[in-house]
Every structure is written in C-alpha cells, then in structure tokens.
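Re: the 448-residue chain
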Amino acid sequence: MAKIKRHQLLLPLLLPLLCFPLMAQQKVWTIDDCMRYAVEHNFDVHESRINYSNDKSSYSESIASFFPSLNASVGADYNFGRSIDPATNTYDNLKTFNNSYAVTASWTIFSGGRTINAFREAKMRMRQASHNVRNCEDEAAIAVMEAYVNLQYYRALVEITASKLDESRRLLEKSLKMKELGMNSAVEVSQARAQYADDDHIHTTAEGEMQTALLSLKRAMNYPVSDTLPLPAPSALSGAGIMGEPEDMAEIYDFALKNNSLVVQAQLNVDASRFAVRQAKGAFIPSLSLQAGLSDYYYRHFGSVNENFREQMNGNFGQYVGISMSIPLFNALSRTGSLKRAKNAELAARSEYDRTLYELDMAISQAVVDYRNLIKENGKMEQKVEADSIAYRLADRKYGEGLMSFTDMQQVYNTWYESQAELVRTSLMVEVKRRLLEYYRTNMLILQ
C-alpha cells in the first residue's frame, strides 16, 4: 500500500480556507443591501448626524442654563511707583505685590420665560434634527432604490437586445440562403442587413446605458468606483412580490401623518418657532438675578514689615450676596426686530407644515394610482408578450416558406422584443411603487 504524503492529507482541509476569500468576493448585492450601505456611507446622512450632535449639545446647554454659574479667579500683580496701598487705601511710592482670590456665583431667578422657552426650543430642535437624520437616510435609500431599479432595467434590456441581435443574425443568414434558392430578392437581404446593423447599434447603446446606470448606482451608494458590484438577475429583484390591492388611502395617510419623518420634522419646526416667539417676547420683561461671592487677598510691601500670609488671609476675607433687576427700556428697536423676525419664522414654519401635508397627500395618492395601474399594465403586458411570441413564430414560419415579406415579418419581430422590454419596465416599476407604499404604510423602507 503506497504511503500518503502529508501535504495530500492537508489539502482537503486547506482547500475550503483557500476558497473562502473567493466565495466572500462573490457576494450578491440585493436592493436592500445597497440601500443599507448607502445609509451608512451617504455624505448627506453623515452631515445630518453631525448637525444632530450639535443640537444635542445645544439641548444640554439649555438644561445647564437653569443652574447657577460659578467662577473662581486668582490674580497676582506687582506695583512699583505711585500706587494705592491696599492696607490704607492711600497713595504711596512703595513697591507692592498683590495676590487676590475670589469665588463668585450668579443665578438668574426670573428672565421673563426666556430660559424655559429656550430649553423647550432646544428640545424641539434636537428632535427635529433626529428626524432629519431619518429623512436623509430615507432619501438616500430611495435614491439608491431608483438607481438600482434603473440599472436592473438596463441589464435586462442588454439581455433582450443581445437575444434580438442573435435573432437578427439568424434571420440574415436565413435570408441569404433563401436568396440562393430564389425565394427572396436582394432588397429583402439588404433589409435583413439593415435590421442586423440597427439591432447591433441598439445593443451597443444599451450596454453603454447599463454602464452609466451602474455608475449612477455607485454614486448614490457612495460605493468605490473601482470595486465590482455583483447584482442578482433582474427577475430576482422583488423581495416580497406584489402585495395586491393597496389598503384604504385614508389609513395609509393617517399613519404617515403621525410617523413620516418629513411631517414630524415640519411639526417640530412649528413648535420650536412658537417657543422662539415666546423668547423674543420675554426680552421685554424685567429679569431678576442673584449674585454671591467670596474674596480674599494678600499683599506685601517691599522694604517694610508685613503681616504673614495666614494673618492677612484671615483679616482680608470678605463675602457678599445681592439681588439685581434688569429693566429693558430702549435698545435701538433690537428687541422689536427680533420679535418680528421670530413671528415671521413661525408663519413660515406653519406654511411649510401645510405644504408638507399637501405634498404627502399628493405623493401617497399618486403612488396608489401608479401601483394600481402598473399592476394592470403588467398583467396585460405578460399576455401581450405571450401573444407577440406566438405571432412571431408564425411570421417566421411564413417568411421561411416565402408567404410573408421581410418587412411584415420584421414588424412582428420588433413588436415582440419591444413588448419584452416594456414588460421588464412595468415589473420593475411595480416593485418601486410597492416599496413606496410599504414605506408610507409602515415607515420602513429597508427590509431587515
């Protein structure tokens, strides 16, 4: 019995490990994978998250504004020449070293409602920024979905035009043989050549459009241009299939009215604007603040006897507490202008909210109408493709028997391939509209 070498035993164990990187590179990117990638890498999404972080910081600052402010200070200075003696508060010509310490606190007791309304506005702005992040994610996902479907359409179109080109080549060869047998003329052969050249041009154009659509998808995803992006066959695009007749539009609209990120964001903008108006009104009301502090200092006269540090710190220690009122009288119409601008901003926010509701209602209605029509159109196109296929097979048989001219057969031939391309388009658009309706109905665009 021959000996088995060690490397022959290890080869079956190492083979899966060697093939694993190759298998990992062959990942097929579904439409949900592409949308998920875009959400994580889109530039607008990144900027919206940064803005959200800034608004969270502003919200934290608004909370801290309810608490007193506390400051500590330490000072040191050296005086020479004529200066004030800190012990007698009179002028002298001694060289003096001064060292001071202080702790101060200030607390706004009443500010005309500006502090509480600033807090409320900051809270609304933070929530608005959070929904803006979600809206940017949804917009990025929708852009990818449209680019993905567009690419899949051109991929399917390339397959159809390639099949049509092969068929044109077969018909050209068939026409040449029929001419040799005297069954058709040179005119019909030239028509077959022209048809082949036209189909070759259409196929080349479709390939170019497919490459452009691929770049558009990578741009929407922010995907590296040089990396490959394997996709499933166009027929495997749909995840959940046709969902049938949509629910009542009123139910879809009611859900979107409460959960759609654009609507919630517009409503939060109205609320924040209302609190901004209250802040502007509070600027006309007097404010009260409480102050308190501790202070101490040490000094030294050069060339004379001075008390030690501890004795001076005990003797110079001071403290104070007080309350002050600030009464706004006149500041060159600054407060009046701020209030006017705040009111105009609130009116603009309410107008934008109404616009958002109208556009949402229009978008849902259009999506429902398009989906219903595309379902019907897709069913009719499936029947038409089947009928055109039968018609073409009959026409091809008649042409081979010399019972039909090439022009008539060509018309039937082109009709069949055009209906195939239209069927691909309607099938893909059904998936787009289905996902949009699911988004409005559930507020979810990417399948888990």
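The mean pLDDT is 84.
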